[in-house]
Design goal:
Elements lengths: L2 E7 L6 E8 L4 E9 L11 E6 L5 E5 L6 H12 L10 E8 L5 E7 H13 L6 E4 L10 E7 L2 E5 L5 E5 L3 H13 L8 E7 L5 H10 L5 E6 L5 H10 L16 H51 L9 H20 L3 H15 L3 E8 L2 E8 L2 H13 L3 E11 L2 E10 L3
Parallel strand pairs: 1-4, 4-8, 9-12, 12-13
Antiparallel strand pairs: 1-2, 2-3, 5-7, 6-7, 9-10, 10-11, 14-15, 15-17, 16-17
Helix pairs in contact: 8-9
């Protein structure tokens, strides 16, 4: 279960902040309080750090932005909202949220200088925020009920439809009147119910009078005290239903991997070198094997053409050889009852056992096999003839034996017994 350290900067003291710890289900783990910023990194260990921005510093609105994609939206937002803002859009930071049923985009607008100031203060304390939200987005979401938070000098209102607005206490009556005007105009489904949370200082008599004056126009009015701070309640609601994360675009949190890259750069370079060498070695081996395969293919085709000179095209030497041998075997069986392959096996054994004898040529016609052999001497040639005859089923006859410098060139005629 993830844990969140939620921090709210103090307006009166730059080096201090409020903090609280909740889990991702909104349960309070540490009630927190106020602390110096340099003391908070110990509490941030293995926790997501969430920064709450003052509600009055963040404009929450909606805009029509037809483009899609985070980067394109970031580029289009300043132009889409330029006419709605009194400030120079170059000094503002825009963050995009979700689209509603009418395809309007939720937008948060804040001063770039404020965001940079908070980031610098956290960085000086040894921390960095994972996310940042307007504190107004931590208001309760209750169907059919508007929620008003009054804390110190700020009032924030969440309408039943989810719309948010914030003002200082001097503008509270105007804010409530504008909200109730929607009910009078029929924009709200029914007479609204208002739940007021009060934190920090007690409600002044003027504010109490404003609220009581609205009571006849409300379905119900309820006021609850939250004590000195509303941070724990805001943090719990944001943990369950986050709002618009202000840390987008140039302020988006970068991966921690960049921090460790210098230490691992040499190891990564060595690993890359090993991979390059391995790939090059495999490529060289594949090239060598391909050359050998081509050479063997050429040798097979050369031997095939030598044995069967009438063949014009060689597509599959193995299949063509099997077809030829099958045909030769069938022809021999029809004439003399012996298979060509059986004859060839007996001859091969006899030649192999002779030692130093090389086959120079072979010819097969009408059941008779003629071999041209180069033997060391006549005795070896004679022994091959006897071994073939002794194997049974075949007769062997030396047709010629011509002496040469490196041995004897002999011609041997082999046929089935009785042929």
């Amino acid at each position: 279960m993830a844990e969140l350290l939620v921090i709210r900067m103090l307006a009166t003291e730059a080096e201090r902040a409020e903090w609280v710890v909740v889990d991702d289900q909104g349960a309070l783990l540490e009630p927190g309080g106020q602390a110096a910023l340099p003391d908070l990194p110990l509490r941030a260990n293995n926790r997501r750090v969430v920064l709450l921005a003052p509600a009055l510093e963040v404009l929450l609105t909606r805009a029509s932005v037809p483009v899609r994609g985070k980067q394109k939206i970031q580029q289009a937002l300043p132009f889409a909202m330029e006419e709605q803002l009194a400030e120079d859009v170059e000094t503002l930071h825009f963050a995009a949220g979700q689209r509603d049923a009418d395809d309007a985009l939720a937008v948060a607008v804040i001063s770039q200088q404020l965001v940079e100031d908070w980031r610098e203060r956290l960085s000086a304390a040894g921390m960095a925020a994972n996310a940042a939200y307007s504190e107004a987005e931590g208001l309760d979401r209750i169907p059919g009920t508007a929620v008003l938070l009054i804390e110190n000098d700020t009032a924030s209102l969440r309408d039943p439809d989810g719309s948010l607005a914030s003002t200082d206490l001097d503008g509270l009556e105007t804010l409530l009147e504008l909200w109730l005007a929607r009910s009078d105009d029929g924009e709200l489904d029914a007479q609204p119910h208002l739940l007021v949370y009060q934190a920090g200082t007690e409600l002044s008599s003027e504010i109490t009078e404003v609220l009581e004056g609205l009571q006849p126009r409300l379905q119900g009015l309820e006021i609850r005290a939250l004590g000195e701070s509303a941070l724990a309640r805001l943090a719990a609601n944001l943990a369950v239903a986050p709002g618009i994360n202000l840390l987008q675009g140039n302020y988006a949190r970068r991966s921690n991997l960049a921090r460790y890259w210098p230490a691992w750069r040499l190891a990564a370079a060595l690993l890359a070198a090993v991979l390059v060498v391995s790939v090059a070695s495999l490529a060289a081996e594949n090239w060598r094997l391909a050359r050998r395969a081509d050479a063997l293919q050429q040798s097979v085709e050369q031997a095939f053409r030598y044995t069967f000179p009438d063949v014009r095209t060689i597509r599959d030497p193995r299949a063509q050889l099997q077809s030829r041998l099958r045909s030769l075997g069938q022809n021999d069986a029809a004439g003399n009852g012996a298979e060509f392959l059986d004859v060839l096996q007996q001859v091969a054994r006899a030649v192999k056992d002779s030692g130093g004898t090389r086959l120079e040529g072979i010819d097969y016609r009408s059941g008779t096999l003629e071999l041209r052999l180069r033997a060391p001497n006549v005795e070896v040639l004679d022994r091959i003839q006897r071994d073939i005859a002794a194997a049974g089923g075949l007769s062997a006859e030396i047709q010629s034996a011509n002496a040469e410098d490196d041995g004897v060139m002999g011609r041997l005629r082999i046929s089935t017994a009785g042929a």
